[in-house]
Structure formats: structure tokens, C-alpha cells
């Protein structure tokens, strides 16, 4: 019994060593050479931004309307792992016609960069629905903003409690 | 890491003409997040993540999505598609290293 568990432990440690080694190689591999052209600039970190600044940058001074009856947002109330929080968005607003839903934005108020994702719909989409998983740095409100082609904005806000941050890595030496 | 860029697309098992279907996609990608040093300063380098996803159906672009690092590792995206006629659905992802990854599937009516 004892020997067996010791072996298990050794096996586990070996696996761990392999994993760590693999991770190191991978990290070296993805660090790019000197920046060339515009594509390599896309991944450069941007300065921290407050959610008010993000909203102003994206939507200017336009007013938001409550969209709770038009947009259904599925988010967990408590997320154990902030690194992957499932979000589902489904809207009854039409995606074609004069006032078509054209974009959906996901904004997490307390993330370092609150703007997370932007989805653009066309009449060929048929319906404004989308699902993905997002990273949340801490317990925060998540806003889903729907932009219509005539400029109307609907927003829905949901609070999420996050147990483990999805954005903090141990500091690098 | 060898798998980076593998694209999976899943369609519903039964598709009727004119229906709006939910297409589930997954791309294997690290979606690196910004790292900080001991002084809590951001380490400036080109982080490797997917910034744009485009969906086209029979050669016509039907959806374009933009992501930041706020989207989880190995992003899975479910999106809608109105299928009036059968055809080829192509999903492609572009990342910050200038690479692009593509997957496609034939949509047929059952």
C-alpha cells in the first residue's frame, strides 16, 4: 500500500517536471523576435483603462437604454475560475431591416482592459445569439451592450462573483 | 503547443432550409495574458492571442468578431447562421503573430 502510493507520487513528480519543462520551452517559443510591421504590434499591451473611459471611447456620449427585456444574458452568479466564465447572449432584436442589431460588445467593469469582445452580425446571421467564455479579473459587473444600425444602444448588466482571478499570473523575475 | 491553430466546427445534426442554426467552433490557442514583473509593471512584448475571427458562407463574409485577451484560452465561440441554401462554411482566426488559422465544413440539409 505504502510503496504503491510512493510510486504514484514519484510518477506524479516526474510528470510535473515534464510539464514544467514543456511550459518553459513553449514560453521561449512564443516570444517573438524584433517587432516588424503592424501585425506584431497588435499584441503589445495597452495601458490600463477605467470602464468609464472604455465606454466613452466605444460609444461617445450616447445614452443607453435598458435592454433587459430584449437581450437575454446567461452568466453564472458565482464563477469559481475567472479564467473561463461561460457567457451566453440571445436577443430577440432583428438583425436585418432599418434598425438592425449590428454589434454586441462584452465589457467587464473591473478588468484591466474592460473591453473583452465585439461581435458583428449581418442579415445572414438570422438571429443575434452568441456564446463564448471570458476572463474576469475579479468580482465585477459584466455589461453586454447591443448597438443597432441606427445608433440605439441597449445594455444589460449582470454581477458575477469571481473566486479565483482569471488575469493574475505570478510575477516574472 | 503543436496543436495551436486547430479549428473544430460543429453543426447541429439536423438542418432544415431557412433555419437559423447554432454553429459551435473551437480554436486551440494560448490567448496569452499580459504578464507583470515583481514591481507590478507590465512586461512589454507582443502577446500571442487571436484578435479577429471571420465567418464566411459560400464566400460571403457573414460575421466578424474582435477579441482581446479577455477571451479565454482555446476560445470557443457559438454563433448563428441562417441557412437558405447548402454551402461551405469557413471560419478563420487571425492572431497577433500574423498567422491565421482556418477551418471549413459543408452545410447540407437532412
Question: Can you put this structure into words, describing what you see?
Answer:
- The complex is a heterodimer of chains A (173) and B (110).
- Chain A has 173 residues and is α+β, with helices and mostly antiparallel strands.
- Chain A has a domain at 51-162: SoxY domain (Immunoglobulin-like, Sandwich), CATH 2.60.40.2470.
- Helices cover 22% and strands 35% of the residues of chain A.
- Chain A is built from two helices and nine strands; from the N terminus they run ααβββββββββ.
- Chain A has helices at 2-30, 51-59, and strands at residues 64-66, 71-74, 78-81, 85-91, 101-108, 115-120, 128-134, 140-148, 153-164.
- In chain A, the strands form two sheets. In chain A, strands 1, 3, 5, 6, 8 and 9 form a six-stranded mixed sheet that branches. Chain A has a three-stranded antiparallel sheet with strand order 2-4-7, with no helix packed on it.
- The radius of gyration of chain A is 21 Å and the shape is globular.
- Chain A starts with a helix and ends in a 9-residue tail after the last strand.
- Residues 16-40 of chain A have low confidence and may be disordered.
- Chain B is mainly beta and 110 residues long.
- Chain B has a single domain, classed as Immunoglobulin-like.
- Helix content of chain B is 0%, strand content 49%.
- Chain B has no helices and seven strands.
- Chain B has strands at 7-10, 19-27, 50-57, 60-67, 76-83, 87-95, 100-107.
- In chain B, strands 4-3-6-7 form a four-stranded antiparallel sheet, with no helix packed on it. Chain B has a three-stranded antiparallel sheet with strand order 1-2-5, with no helix packed on it.
- The termini of chain B are far apart.
- The relative contact order of chain B is 0.31.
Amino acid at each position: 500500500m505504502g510503496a504503491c502510493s510512493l510510486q504514484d507520487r514519484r510518477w506524479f513528480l516526474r510528470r510535473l517536471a515534464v510539464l514544467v519543462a514543456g511550459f518553459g520551452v513553449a514560453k521561449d517559443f512564443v516570444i517573438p523576435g524584433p517587432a516588424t510591421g503592424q501585425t506584431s504590434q497588435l499584441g503589445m499591451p495597452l495601458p490600463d483603462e477605467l470602464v468609464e473611459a472604455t465606454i466613452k471611447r466605444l460609444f461617445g456620449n450616447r445614452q443607453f437604454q435598458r435592454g433587459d427585456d430584449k437581450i437575454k444574458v446567461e452568466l453564472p452568479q458565482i464563477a469559481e475560475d475567472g479564467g473561463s466564465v461561460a457567457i451566453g447572449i440571445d436577443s430577440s432584436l432583428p438583425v436585418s431591416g432599418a434598425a438592425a442589431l449590428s454589434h454586441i460588445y462584452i465589457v467587464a467593469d473591473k478588468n484591466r482592459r474592460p473591453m473583452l469582445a465585439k461581435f458583428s452580425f449581418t442579415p445572414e446571421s438570422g438571429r443575434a445569439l452568441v456564446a463564448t467564455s471570458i476572463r474576469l479579473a475579479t468580482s465585477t459587473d459584466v455589461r453586454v451592450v447591443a448597438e443597432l444600425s441606427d445608433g440605439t444602444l441597449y445594455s444589460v448588466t449582470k454581477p458575477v462573483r469571481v473566486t479565483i482571478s482569471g488575469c493574475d499570473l505570478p510575477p516574472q523575475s | 503547443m503543436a496543436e495551436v491553430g486547430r479549428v473544430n466546427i460543429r453543426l447541429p445534426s439536423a438542418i432544415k432550409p431557412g433555419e437559423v442554426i447554432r454553429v459551435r467552433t473551437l480554436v486551440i490557442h494560448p490567448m496569452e495574458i499580459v504578464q507583470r514583473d515583481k514591481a507590478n509593471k507590465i512586461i512589454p512584448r507582443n502577446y500571442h492571442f487571436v484578435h479577429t475571427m471571420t465567418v464566411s458562407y459560400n464566400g460571403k463574409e457573414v460575421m466578424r468578431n474582435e477579441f482581446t485577451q479577455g477571451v479565454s484560452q482555446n476560445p470557443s465561440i457559438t454563433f448563428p447562421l441562417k441557412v437558405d441554401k447548402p454551402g461551405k462554411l469557413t471560419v478563420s482566426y487571425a492572431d497577433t503573430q500574423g498567422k491565421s488559422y482556418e477551418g471549413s465544413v459543408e452545410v447540407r440539409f437532412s
